[in-house]
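User: Could you walk me through two proteins back to back? I'd like the raw sequence and the structure tokens for each, with a short line separating them so I can tell where one ends and the next begins.

Assistant: Of course. Protein one, sequence then structure:
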Amino acid sequence: MNNEKDAPRASGGQKRFALGLDYGTESVRALLVDCATGDEAAQAVVPYTHGVMTERLPAWEPQRRLPPDYALQHPMDYIDSGATAVRQALRAAGPGEVIGVGVDFTSCTILPVRKDGTPLALEAEFREDPHAWVKLWKHHGAQREADEINALARKRGEKFLRYYGGAISSEWMLPKCLEVARKSPAVYAATDYFVDAGDWVVQQMTGVFTRSTCSAGYKGLWNAETGYPSRDFLRELDPAVEHIAQKWVPDLVAPGRKSGSVSASFAARSGLKAGTPVSAATIDAHSGVPGMGVYREGPLCIIMGTSSCHMALSSELKLFDGYAGVVKDGVIEGFHGYESGQSAVGDIFGWFVKDVLGEISFSVITTKAARLEPGESGLVALDWMNGNRSVLMDANLSGMVLGMTLATKPEEIYRALVEATAFGTRRIVDAYQAGGIRVTELVVCGGIAQCSFIVQTYADATGLPVRVASSQQTVALGAAIFGALAAGAQAGGFDSVEEAIVRMTRPPAMAVEPRNQYRETYDRLYGVYLRAHDFFGREEKGLMKELKNIKIKTKEIVHV
């Protein structure tokens, strides 16, 4: 259906491209998509020079260490790598015109800046202060603050908590801002804006500050009906943040709407044409929904990477426990967009293969694991190696493997870890179904989704069919779709999000059905998973937290 497109071309038949910039945990990807055909004309991936900083800051002495659970980044990596990626993609695409740009970003990734957009981390006064740097989405240093926000909101009966399934995460904006206010009052006082990194990239491209309704709604406690949490709530939480809303960008713009245009300075740096429309930023996972071709109720979209994010659409608002956020028009216009997630998926597999096994490849361990029958090893794992995002919303939980013996083999543990992430998804599906959100199938994307063993395991373990998105760059494709919407039909883009999705995406690359012969076994394994989930995650969650407290206390003695 996408091979016969008739979207307008520029004069002389010149191609018109939409550009998607996908900012991930380790790198940025630039994707050029032909608006007339949906062909992905060119792409480029550029890693961040400084990567994820979990040990030390660039200016620190070698022996100085960051506290546990810190995950920081260098802000200029985003601009340097992004501009380089754009130039590389433009060279590879050949003749054509970029009519619109969309940006997606990992969330909630934040940084403190001046009014002109200058990051405090670049100033001599603050370059050695960890709280002046970018706090990546998986920075979990603000768990105490998140716990306090949740407790106070429950005590006061705050309505905003109902839109987040009854609990917020330490990964979100307010806990991280409160962490800065308490641990580095000087940085907090000097900050004009705490901004999501995606919004900051858009500001660096256009010179205009806007705040995405997507990130503000899902990670910033903003609601179109009620606004932000009240000053009374914030004052009782901590007087230091009573006026925190003044440090958040006030101009809210929805993804697919124009935030500004490429500035002359960024044009010179990137090779883009000055004046090119730029969409408001969106969260990377949310961008993947249109990139997977989804614009209706029924599918549960899973963006599978280092972590996984689950997105579902509903024409009606349902408030229940088990999702991380719901925002009207937060994903696709006309629907309430629900978000849930797993804090680690690919990171779990990578940890086991690289750090535990060391000298074995993914292909070898996957082949061995695929030969095993479900239940053959007698193992069940909990997928909490980076905490639990949904449905428990507790970053202080940790993972485990149950049932090991002296006969347990590495491939059996690996299979149990894969199954654990599938069971984590099934637990999310259960919560949605119980809350009145219909889930008929899984639609998945990401590098992990290219592994047939993992995809089949998800189908078998959840009992749902799985469709694999045709594009291997669905998140960047979704950003490009929003760029085409920012440009509008008059400029060769689109005015309708449904039309943009239909024209710029393709049918699924693979469809997998659950195998009935394994249903009983997986139901029994999932039953064990649920009992362990509730015991260690609810009834006796203090066991895991005590171990973590011992670890943190020990490290505090060693690290300054």
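----
Protein two, same layout:
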Amino acid sequence: MRPSLAMRILAVALTSSVVVGVALPLQRDSPLNQARASAVPYLGSARFTAADLGPVAPATPLSTVLVLNNPNMAREAADLTALYTPTSPRFGHYLTAARLAAQYGPTAAAVDRARTILRRMGISADWHRGNDWLIATGSARAFEIAFQVATRWYRSPTGLKFYAADRAPVLPAALHPYVTSISRISSDFEPTRFAIPPGGLTPTDLLGAYDITPLRNLGLDGAGQTVVFFELDGFAQSDFDTFTAKLGLPPMQPVIKAGPTMQPGAETEMDLEVVHAIAPAAKLVIYNFDIQGEIKKATSDAQFLQTQLDFQNRMVSENPGAVISQSWGLCEKPLGQALADAYKNLYDHADALGESVFVSTGDNAAYQCLPQVPRGTAPSADTLAVPLPADAPGVTATGGTRLSLSSNHGWYNETVWEQPAETNGTGGGVSLYYNRPAWQQGTGVLDPLYNPRGMRSIPDVSADADPTSGVSIYIPIGNSSQWAGGGGTSQSAPIWAGITALINQYLQGKQLHPVGFMNPALYRIAAHPTPFQAFHDVTMGSNLYYPATPGYDMASGLGTPDVWNLARDLEAYQRGGGQ
């Protein structure tokens, strides 16, 4: 039976639980199983309402992720730090994908031993050299025996069907030397594509608001730079032609590098149009992930899981030195440590390849889990959360503001983007799974009230996200394409991506390195005296839970950019050895 998972399975949803003990077989009709069957499904650190549809058939293929013991982890972390430390001789000497896979990750021999153990349990494993994780696939019966769970089908509040185990899986003792954690067993996974909303800011307004114009006046237009987009819908070339003709921009000629041509969607068109307005000569590359199409092709959830994880790996490995913009995310809370570890590994690899990854923080304000509970549920501590992959330590998480312009079309003021009546606004908050990275320092970062455990917090930076002050875009709305004002943190991520393309071009013209992973430099510049004022500090508003304050805060991060100043500060940062 083909599962009806729709958007719930862009990837498997995971948990971090590792319990030391001996795996004992579970009988499907045992009293323990019967008691578990009446409970809600185990969805990591959170439990959400779901209708029980009955047991999963024993032969149904399931999948999960195992995080592998990596003896090279400390060396890999040290080498990554060196790549982004201006005083290091390795600064800016980014790796190739082949070199990255050869130098880091678990040994092939150790992975082979883990595979042999899994094979004896009736479970196969797919692994790519260099990765800290593998995908384990087997029948429901094999999983229940190996990992001490019972599995059932459920229907979510949104009407989508998924399977889930009744509790955290137990890692068999034989795997302990090779595996550090195991994911939860579930196909409950529903990504949120962050918002599209009238007029909007023209390119001239946008360039003026964030002081981008001086870079453009130097003749910088993104030439030689590549911006990559992970997209879940398509585009119409005729819409791009209308957009560029009216706004006096060069033609747009995006390239679909992976995935099929898909139906035009507002998300993809906004992402590309915003970057093109800022860096019109940058190469625009699209990785289209057709969720519905991949579900139809997949013979099981396990195959679908492998397809989408390989797809994201491919995007990272094929684009060294590129800028990546992503406008989707998943409520972090139910996903667990194992998925968090896998995403960290993926984006650490992107950093080692010299890529700059910008990810939206979401449009449900501080309550990223709110869409996963029945409609009308009030925001609460249960739904207070941040999205993955925005909080992965290797990405730059972009929040959203409401922008006001002065009479000369320059920056006047910004407040945090919030829409309390709809529980909408910029995402931000504290990660459950990642410790605060060493580079995340400065006024406001250490927050004993809102972040007493000292975890990774987001956003890192912000940009315009309020539809009332959005960028002028031409996108599909209903049955036709129309002019509109962009909005949501889906807009702030491509704003930063376009800015970074120009800054890379500026730095390379000075015989310096492209920025790659930008966060170490951003936090250093914000926390120490610099030649120029690189950020607008946003101190008004909240994301319905975390207030904006002077310095860093979890509503606006470090603030929004003065791009000309930031470019010159980054130049000084590199020339001064990070001082």
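The longest strand covers residues 396-405.

Let me know if you want the two compared in more detail.
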